[in-house]
Design a protein that fits this description.
Length: 346
């Protein structure tokens, strides 16, 4: 319910927020609701209240996080891949820090509610930083994008027409599709990883838990390496090299028996780390001066992408989890084939 209802509420944010002062107000307002939803989860005493908090979390996160990402992309149009790499590094740091935070809260005698209270405090600090930073100065867009004031005065119907036009443009649509395809070997694969290691590879649950930690840690290392590599190589060259590595490593992960799987898993996780930031940067790059359109398209694609775990689960129920995960070998091949006609950005 939070994914579907909250995702639908988040869907029009990019269109309604637009750019300029209106988007900044949406970011700051979303940040306040973002912190309040975390407080709501921490204080929930019924399933209904918990669901309401999680449903509200989606549009609040879209306004606070996704629109901030769009603002950053507008500010550095010539370094979108490098900036997205740093953005993803921050996200990977949070993914690793989250379990550590929960361990610290539980070790100190707190509960999961205390953990959400801590997150609400961190969100409040992030909001304060966004407020004190002030609006970013976007780089001048292409002539057809107009000035910031002109873009801000555009009615939402004009941006809706831009979304329809973007969906007809293969240059945008291919990156949007690739983001969701790549996610099958990113978040979706992570969701089934522990189950696969225990039920198919017959490893102890403790080893499966260790595998999740290794995957998160290796992805973080891959994000750190990506920040350095992008200063020396083009984004498409890095994307293709990572896809080749994943095309070799993923079958190896499936075939290698026992604990050595964890070594291959670490290499695979580092190799696939560039996929989301580079593909997302390419999506923004295909829509110069229209980052709000990219936000709305990403939200819509995320709703559709929510069918990914369900599809893998249904296939696993039909033919077994090992065969369902084996089908994901097509993901790096798709990444290798689709961007063949694009130009790399150094």
């Amino acid at each position: 319910m939070p994914l579907l209802v909250g995702g639908l509420l988040e869907l029009p944010l990019g269109v309604l927020a637009g750019q300029g002062r209106r988007r900044r107000l949406a970011i700051l307002g979303g940040g306040i609701i973002f912190a309040l939803t975390l407080l709501g989860v921490a204080s929930a005493r019924s399933l209904a209240m918990l669901l309401c908090a999680f449903v509200a979390f989606y549009p609040a996160s879209g306004a606070f996080v996704s629109l901030t990402q769009a603002e950053i992309m507008d500010a550095w149009p010539d370094r979108q891949a490098q900036v997205m790499a740093r953005w993803d590094l921050a996200g990977s740091t949070g993914a690793v820090a989250g379990p550590l935070l929960l361990i610290a809260v539980l070790a100190s005698g707190g509960s999961w509610r205390a953990g959400y209270l801590v997150l609400a405090g961190i969100a409040a600090l992030a909001w304060l930083g966004a407020y004190l930073r002030g609006p970013m100065d976007p780089a001048v867009g292409p002539p057809e994008a107009g000035t910031e004031d002109e873009v801000e005065r555009q009615p939402w119907t004009a941006r809706a027409r831009e979304i329809a036009a973007a969906l007809r443009a293969w240059g945008t649509l291919r990156w949007l599709l690739l983001i969701e395809v790549a996610d099958l070997l990113l978040d979706v694969f992570t969701g089934f990883l522990a189950l696969y290691l225990v039920d198919v590879a017959h490893l102890p649950p403790a080893v499966a838990a260790l595998a999740i930690a290794i995957r998160l840690g290796a992805a973080l290392a891959g994000d750190v390496a990506l920040v350095v590599i992008l200063e020396r190589a083009g984004d498409l060259a890095v994307l293709r090299a990572s896809a080749i590595a994943a095309a070799l490593l993923y079958p190896g992960f499936l075939f290698v028996p026992g604990v050595p799987k964890l070594v291959v898993l670490a290499a695979l996780s580092a190799a696939t780390a560039p996929w989301y930031p580079l593909l997302q940067a390419r999506l923004y790059g295909s829509l110069p001066g229209r980052s709000s359109v990219a936000v709305t398209l990403s939200s819509a694609a995320g709703l559709a992408g929510g069918l990914g775990p369900l599809t893998v689960g249904l296939v696993a129920q039909w033919v077994g989890l090992s065969w369902a995960l084996a089908g994901l070998v097509v993901v790096p091949v798709a990444i290798l084939l689709v961007p063949a006609g694009a130009r790399s950005r150094a």
